[in-house]
């Protein structure tokens, strides 16, 4: 195998695929890129056995040549070293050549590297078949779904199902739900696929795909226990998480007698200020609602107390005191992505809702904590 | 005590003094700012008992009023919380008021904080007298001295004297030397003080002062076991390090038969590239010198090998192979702060010198390592 490739295009390919490669692996082959050169172009593949990424660079496209002087073949090269070398080289082009079966030469005609390598046959067999339900989304819609839901998932592995976003499709509607059992985020989207199915997609995969996606539409292929995200020249494979996602509808109250509309930024800043002294108490603040005025306060025996009147509000409902974790409410308000937000309360010890007046597709639920003062 | 202060000026004062305050202290009072308001202005003081910083903000200066509505007095307030509160407040002005002896109120008329505080009498007595030898330097010269020497000091506490920069003055010349015993940096400066004295200033103090210094000249006051840096409205006190600084002159060869002149950037980039594979061997590369060509190479049994010819060089001397730590030589070349650098070698196992063709005031010495291939 030999080829000379445009360095910037190759570096982008390696950076994309490197997302799948971990710093350590019980299978040494997984610390390598698998490079495969044929008459169509160069395929780079990487995996940690949970996520697999395959990226394809054509020999040429639209009159632009990316790869020259190639002979077909394949090899495994240390991801860490190949990426660092290609990043640091100065030249416009890089030449990769398998010298014998276990040495690869990398050069830009100025600096020369010889890396110990492995035969591509030593790479584990991976299931790279693509089939099943197809869902096509614009890059903007996909990124919005990810940014509005994944933060609410659990970051702990105690209940693996809560580290996924539940994706439920039916009659052309898709519902994406994430919860860590203390808060919940639900996003609704229209999709072209009208079949009924339900899967749990790992948050990690969604976040990584969202970061890699740029100005491409994206196709999700969902089958068995696997999802494949197809975008640009990239195929991103992730396992799904098995198990039943909790029935979240009963977390959501149906009736909200207390409704507060506030400017999102002003409210978040006031909460953040007041919570400065609330470090010890797990960043809990108290919101005191009354049609005459709305106040946020916090108190700590050791440090002191803080309070601030909320400006720019509309409130309907009786007097209500409710305490909550500032970060949960801040996340929920930011996910609403609107200038004003509506906080709807059912009572002091009931979950409450954060919504946008402009966008009904996104609903956030937060559970309060007991107030001690 | 009560005062209303311009928030941005007060925040700058707190940020400056906070440099002296550690995250923990066996003396709880040292976790506080000491605030002292009198008719001249507001003094903020902080200390960790090794470094003490005092900053003064006048009531007004050049027709600009910084402080209003004040009554004299003093108090101790938690550095961590006061700094965070003043940073996050929105208002242009902040009012600080001691409510009773142990509660301070902080407010911008929108958000209100009540912090538990301590009486200023509970602050330890510190020696804040200023006397001794005076050395005045421009901010540019001081920053240059610091950036060209401190990196070469030891970062380990095994030999505390090596965590200092040795400052030797005599006949109007000052010599600043730092060494970790593997490399050495020596900077010479002309100073107005013609007395003879020698002290060891902790690198930490020099680096922090250099970061705080902006467009002011700086005066060093050196007496006993203490140095005081005076600049802007700030007095920065540091202990000196006792003990004899090693005699470094015998580390420096007197005769260099091999002399290489190279472009600093090109040489550093080539070294960094070639050393990519040298991680295991403590970032050692080999430099092969010959009048026909200069090459940098590295080799690792497990990973592979690398080599690159150096461009843009002038070399005088016979054939020489010498191996060294890439980071030491990179630091030395960067400290020379010039487009070209001169590397002068005495032999394969002798310390070598890095100098600038334009600036004789700075000399770097690096010891080589034995070459294994």
Widest β-sheet, arrangement of strands of chain A: 16-13-14-15-28-27-26-20-24
* CATH class placement of the largest domain in chain A: Alpha Beta
Number of helices of chain A: 6
In the CATH hierarchy, what is the architecture of the largest domain in chain A at level 2? Roll
Q: Provide the number of structural domains of chain A.
A: 3
Q: Using CB atoms under 8 Å apart, which protein chain pair has the greatest interface?
A: A-B, 31 and 31 residues
CATH fold description of the largest domain in chain A: DNA Polymerase III, Chain A, domain 2
Which stretches of chain A are poorly predicted, pLDDT < 50 over at least 5 residues? none
Q: What is the molecular shape of chain A?
A: elongated
Beta-sheet strand percentage of chain A? 35-45%
Characterization of this structure:
2 copies of one chain form a homodimer. Chain A has 373 residues and is an alpha+beta fold. The first copy, chain A, has 6 helices and 28 strands. Chain A has a 9-stranded antiparallel β-sheet with strand order 16-13-14-15-28-27-26-20-24. Chain A has an 8-stranded antiparallel β-sheet with strand order 8-2-3-4-19-18-17-12. In chain A, strands 7-1-9-10-11 form a 5-stranded antiparallel β-sheet. In chain A, helix 1 (7-18) packs antiparallel against helix 2 (79-88), helix 3 (139-149) runs antiparallel to helix 4 and helix 5 packs antiparallel against helix 6 (326-336). Chain A is elongated and about 80 Å long. The A-B interface holds A 78, 81, 84-85, 88-90, 103, 110-116, 269-270, 272-274, 276-277, 302-309, 311 and B 78, 81, 84-85, 88-90, 103, 110-116, 269-270, 272-274, 276-277, 302-309, 311.
């Amino acid at each position: 195998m030999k080829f000379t490739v445009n360095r910037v295009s190759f570096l982008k390919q390696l950076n994309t695929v490197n997302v799948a490669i971990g710093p350590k692996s019980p299978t040494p082959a997984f610390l390598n890129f698998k490079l495969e050169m044929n008459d169509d172009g160069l395929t780079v593949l990487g995996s940690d056995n949970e996520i697999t990424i395959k990226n394809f660079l054509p020999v040429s496209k639209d009159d632009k040549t990316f790869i020259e002087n190639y002979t077909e073949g394949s090899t495994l090269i240390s991801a860490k070293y190949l990426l660092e070398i290609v990043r640091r080289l100065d030249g416009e082009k890089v030449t990769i050549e398998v010298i014998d079966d276990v040495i690869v030469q990398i050069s830009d005609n100025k600096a020369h590297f010889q890396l110990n390598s492995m035969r591509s046959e030593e790479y584990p067999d991976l299931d790279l078949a693509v089939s099943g339900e197809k869902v096509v989304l614009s890059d903007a819609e996909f990124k919005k779904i990810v940014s509005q839901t994944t933060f609410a998932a659990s970051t702990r592995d105690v209940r693996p199902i809560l580290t996924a976003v539940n994706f439920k499709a039916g009659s052309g509607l898709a519902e994406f739900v994430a919860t860590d059992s203390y808060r919940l985020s639900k996003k609704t989207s229209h999709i072209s696929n009208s079949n009924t199915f339900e899967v749990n997609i790992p948050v990690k995969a969604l976040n990584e795909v969202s970061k890699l996606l740029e100005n491409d539409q994206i196709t999700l292929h969902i089958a068995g226990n696997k999802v494949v995200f197809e975008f640009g020249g990239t195929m991103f494979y992730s396992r799904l998480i098995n198990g039943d996602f909790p029935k979240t509808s009963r977390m959501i109250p149906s009736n909200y007698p207390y409704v507060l509309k506030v400017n999102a930024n002003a409210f978040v800043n006031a909460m953040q200020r007041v919570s400065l002294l609330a470090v010890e108490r797990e960043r809990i603040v108290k919101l005191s609602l009354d049609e005459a005025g709305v106040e946020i306060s916090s108190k700590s025996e050791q440090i002191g107390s803080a309070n601030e009147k909320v400006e720019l509000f509309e409130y309907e409902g009786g007097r209500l005191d409710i305490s909550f974790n500032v970060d949960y409410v801040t996340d929920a308000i930011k996910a609403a992505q609107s200038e004003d937000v509506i906080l709807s309360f059912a009572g002091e010890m009931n979950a409450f809702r954060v919504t946008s007046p402009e966008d009904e597709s996104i609903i956030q639920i937060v559970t309060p904590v007991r107030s001690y003062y």
